[in-house]
Write a structure and sequence with these properties.
The protein has helices at about 5-15, 20-25, 45-55, 65-80, 85-125; strands at about 5, 35, 40-45. It is mainly alpha-helical and about 130 residues long. The chain has a single domain (about 5-125), classed as Multidrug-efflux Transporter Regulator, Chain: A, Domain 2 (Orthogonal Bundle). A 3-stranded antiparallel beta sheet has the order 1-3-2. A hairpin with a 5-residue loop joins strand 2 and strand 3 (about 40-45). Helix 4 packs across helix 5 (about 85-125). The longest helix is centred in the last third of the chain and has 40 residues, at about 85-125.
């Protein structure tokens, strides 16, 4: 049986707040795989991976709906029962998300370069 993690452990592993993880459950983005007898949310390693993917998407400007659609597309592509049309649609959305992520990387790399240049410039004035 897979290890089940309580929300505090998941928060520590994902660097997301407990409030954010609960919100993602409330909006149906990532639902915990189980509940304890006392009603506590219990998460699997796969759930944690989904939350980490979401954490990576958020600062890149993906909306909750886009995150949901990407997770659905990944499920569609992983399923052996997926038809050709659904697989093609999921692959197209995944390609669009990949392109957006690449563009975000390019933008952030450029901004990081600017920050390093400024840091070097300002360091020359420190004593």
């Amino acid at each position: 049986m897979a290890e089940l993690l309580r929300i505090g452990d998941v928060a520590a592993r994902t660097e997301l707040s407990i409030k954010t993880i609960r919100h993602y459950d409330d909006v149906g983005l990532v639902t915990p795989s189980a509940r304890s007898g006392g009603g506590f949310r219990l998460y699997t390693a796969e759930d944690v991976d989904l939350l980490i993917a979401i954490r990576r998407m958020k600062p890149l400007g993906f909306t909750l709906d886009e995150m949901r659609e990407l997770l659905a597309a990944l499920d569609t592509l992983a399923s052996e029962d997926t038809g050709d049309a659904a697989r093609a649609q999921a692959a197209e959305f995944l390609a669009d998300c990949h392109a957006r992520a690449e563009q975000a990387c390019a933008t952030l790399t450029r901004q990081l370069g600017y920050a390093r240049e400024l840091t070097d410039q300002l360091a020359r004035y420190r004593r």
